[in-house]
Amino acid sequence: MSSIKRVNVAKRLSDMAVYNGVAYLAGQVPDDATLDITGQTAQVLATIDKLLAEAGTDKSRILMAQIFITNMKEFDGMNKAWDAWVADGNAPPRATVEARLANPDYKVEIVVTAAVA
């Protein structure tokens, strides 16, 4: 049986679990909630890059992305950061929904699952 590797384990959640060749990331949120949607999204994507690197993989191996934004009117701003970040030729399946987030200043939260090399 394969072991489960957990990263940044806290009482309530881990930032990531890696099991059987797959990295499962928790919802990642921005460090600076004062930024606009594009800035917050860029911060979240940078965090995702770091976590994926820790798992031995990268954004070109994302299997699925789930994006939660607080206001669909900001969809284009989120996509501006996403489009600049997503790996050419490797855009993953993705869902984007409007949702109320845990911190009212957060504009975006992103969950990804990726294959580990």
Automatic annotation (TrEMBL):
InterPro entries: RidA_CS, RutC-like_sf, YjgF/YER057c/UK114, YoaB-like. Pfam families: Ribonuc_L-PSP. CDD domains: YjgF_YER057c_UK114_like_2. Belongs to the RutC family. This is RidA family protein. It comes from Achromobacter aloeverae. The lineage of its organism: Bacteria, Pseudomonadati, Pseudomonadota, Betaproteobacteria, Burkholderiales.
